[in-house]
Amino acid sequence: MRRAVRFLMALVVALALVAWVGSAIVHRTTRAWFEKDVSLRAQLVVSGARQALATHWRKEQRSELQGLLAEIAHDERIMAAAACAADFTTLTRTKDYPDQFGCADLGPHVRPSADSPAEEWKAWGTVATLPGGDVHVSAIPVLDAEHPLGFVVLVHDLSFVQRREATTQRFMLLAFGLLAATAAIVTIVTARLAWRGWSDELRGILRSGTKRPEFQPILRDVRDLVDRIVAEKQSDRDGGAWTPQRLKHTLNRYLHGEKVVILANREPYVHEHTKSGTIEVLHPASGLVTALEPVMRACSGVWVAHGSGSADKQTVDKQSRVAVPPGEESYLIRRVWLSPEEEKGYYYGFSNEGLWPLCHIAHARPIFRSEDWKHYQAVNQRFADAVCEEVDSEDPIVLVQDYHFALAPRLIRERLPRATVIMFWHIPWPNSARLGICPWRNALLEGMLGASILGFHTQFDCNNFVESVDRFLEARIDREQQGVVQHGRTTLVRPYPISLEWPVRWSSTTPPAAECRRALCEELELPPNALIGVGVDRLDYTKGVEERLLAVECLLDRYPEYRGRFTFIQLAAPSRTVIERYQQYNDSVEKLAARINERFGEGSYRPIVLLRRHHEPPVVFRYYRAADVCYVSSLHDGMNLVAKEFIAAREDERGVLVLSQFTGAARELTEALIVNPYDLGEASAALATALTLSTEEQRDRMRSMRAFLAEFNVYRWAGRMLADAARLRSRDRLTGRLTDHLAAAAR
Ligand code: F6P
To answer: Which of 348, 426, 541 to mutate to test the pocket of ligand 1 (most atoms within 8 A of CB)?
Structure first.
């Protein structure tokens, strides 16, 4: 009904528009016709009376001439007439002849110049407006055997034209309205009949489960989609917001409280020796750790990781385990020790010089060495073995993380065929042409397909992965289930966009924004009214730190009012510094910051403050809170949790996020100012906009993004994967039971 009303309203508006345009056209056209008509008529009248006119004219019989004009003006449409001599003097005129059409004024239109011969004399006409309405004035030469005597002026009343115009318009509108109404009724009736027919047919198909083969794929897709949406909605309705408790409850309810084992290269707590001889615990700068640590605290279990801290060995028990978090001890880290050669080949070499640039479009050339590949294979086996030592059942739940362990899912499955292995890939997945660069691409794909569920941040990455399998492996793509089937086993390939715990624990311990700002200005010797920008990254070429600093330079170039006022603080955690490309990047970022400071620095003012060291999360949160703007400029990024952390830190609903379009986060945080980091004009303009955005607009954007993060938090991320895993397990158990049953029956 509402749709029909909307359609009718649109129709009325369209009709009004068409009628308005139509009446203007009618007016102009009928006007032109009538004018032409009147001037022809005037000529006819004069030519009919020419003989008599010429006779009286020649004899200068003015009273006869006047009588003749009066007779002509008897016509109901001719208001007045005048006879003008060849020298433009008035010979005679009727009683009501209007003064403004004097012979002297009209004469030059009839006779162009004083010595114009007879053939140059011409009839002339125009429309003029008098207080009583429009009139048509015609001046027509009177010739006596080719000899011009003068001209006659006839003034026609045009009010009849207006009357006829109005009548024509009324008829036209009526006809038009009838036509439009008929067309609308026919359209509505036809559309309703077609819709009813179509939906009846669809309903019939859905009810009867038709055997028509062309409908089967679409039917399966629709049913599957509807089931999934209903299940997700139901699970959200049942449980409300996702919290650590709800995640734990999901684990207990659907997975019977099974122990969760995480395999990730980076450990969540690193023990380091300090210069003073003590041991400190550090939180590494890692999106993976930021996301997964709260999940582990909620679920308990074991996190298997590389023991990379200088004091790690001193803090573990005989099984290389340590309970964390310090003071809370809710789960275990199982450390795996690597020799320097192993670390070089597996971590720096294959993982970070090969796979990392392969998966990121950031203009770094992937390097693949066979020695690195051997280490990668061996280390994957060692970690897979460590996982198998930590599980306490035949069918454990193992969460394998990231590109360091592409081979581990298959290796774990070989030892534990009934395990539920969920692999999450934290970085983008390349398209198949790019993946083809890697000499061991097939082994990587085979290794990953050992997982039961394979998760990526976006559907785009899933599509790229499935396309790669299609291109390089003998496997069947099951689009209905969103999976890949190989050797009779299915691996689901699905998007699970990662997120943060909510609220982030550092939020409650960080002072309010005003205090953070005051302390920071004091520490960095910034004036209290300074405008502050912040960037937080590992020093990695994919993060676009160079492009970010160049955007700041461009801002100061284009908007001189920010010189001396705007300071951009870049927290840069040194990362993978053994690799040459990272060393170069480190140097170039430092040189760039120095150049910009040199160019725009004045007195104690430096536009760029580059802090190249590791910052613990509570410190990072102080910077987030103190800033007016946070700029995330990744050239390519799976998700980017810095963007989400900045939002999480801003309980005051202030501050603006400028975000690269090449991050997974840009698909979710749409209220950020989204930019192409390569486009310095656009990025600098966005920074300028961010610095002038009203507090109301900042609040509206922040509020909306915070609401999104509160709902789509990391507990939901993990909960969804575990729920999918639970469904898979029960399906596998049922089909396993059925197979056993059939085998027993056959014996
Ligand atoms: O983003 C990819 C990733 O492995 C993350 O998972 C992690 O946050 C980050 O890189 C840290 O890298 P690394 O462990 O090499 O310091």
So the answer is: 426
Q: Residue 128 is encoded by which pair of tokens?
A: 């003029």
What would the pLDDT profile of 265-274 be if each residue is shown by its tens digit? 999 999 999 9
Task: Output the CA 68–ligand 1 centroid distance in Å.
Answer: 108
| Reported pTM | 0.71
Token reading at 215: 């409908």
Question: Could you check whether 260-495 and 527-712 share the same CATH topology?
Answer: yes
Q: Which CATH superfamily is domain 260-495 in?
A: Glycogen Phosphorylase B; (3.40.50.2000)
Question: Which three-class secondary structure state does DSSP give residue 656?
Answer: strand
Measured CA to CA, the distance from residue 161 to residue 168 in angstroms comes to: 10
Nearest CA to ligand 1 atom 9: 286
For 352-410, the pLDDT digits (tens) are 999 999 999 999 999 999 999 999 999 999 999 999 999 999 999 999 999 999 999 99
Q: Give the number of other CB atoms < 10 A from CB of residue 241.
A: 12
Mapping DSSP to helix (H, G, I), strand (E, B) and coil, where does residue 138 land? strand
Cis preceding-peptide flag for 503 (omega within 30 of 0): yes
Pocket, ligand 1, Cβ cutoff 6 A: 265-266, 286-288, 402, 426-427, 575-576, 638
Q: Write down the architecture of domain 527-712 according to CATH.
A: 3-Layer(aba) Sandwich (3.40)
- Cα–Cα dist 556/550, whole Å: 10
The domain 2-162 having CATH identifier 3.30.70.20: the answer here is: no
Closest CA to 726 of 304, 260, 332: 260
Band (255; pLDDT cuts 50, 70, 90): confident
Nearest to 263 by CA among 451, 463, 497, 516: 451
Structural domain boundaries in the chain = 2-162, 260-495, 527-712
